[in-house]
Amino acid sequence: MIRRILPLIFLLIAGPLAAADFTPLDRLAAQKLLSPESHRQATIVALWSSDCNYCKKNLKLLSSLTHRNQKLRVITIAAEPESPELWPMLKPYALAGPRYAYGTDNPEAIAYAIDAKWGGELPRTFLFDGRGGKQTVAGVISIDSVEKATGLRF
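Given the sequence above, the corresponding structure tokens read:
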């Protein structure tokens, strides 16, 4: 009996810990992640930071949209190195997609790889339609802008 229960207990304990992992983002991964060819379905890549209130508005909207239409994939990038404070800030939004945080590369180099025209303002959101189209939004996003860019309805 114990042999059957131990694996279940392990999964219950380890599952939430694994869900909190952020993948370190470097320049090469950033270039690939922001390439339209990398996205075969409607995808949003949302840049955010722990001290950005407008980012939290975007994350809340994205959470709502993913619950309304499960075809939407959301990838988050914390525009700062991973820290213990990041996961508690992202967790309430229940975004199931991959989570990245800046890795050990120079932050300016990562930012340039993300978008050479980006001056660092947040939030910054990249919307992919899954067919090679890409749009960039600086600031707060709207349902209309997500629908137009991705072709999905919410």
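Residues 21-150 form a domain with the Glutaredoxin fold (CATH 3.40.30.10). Try to locate this feature in the token string yourself.
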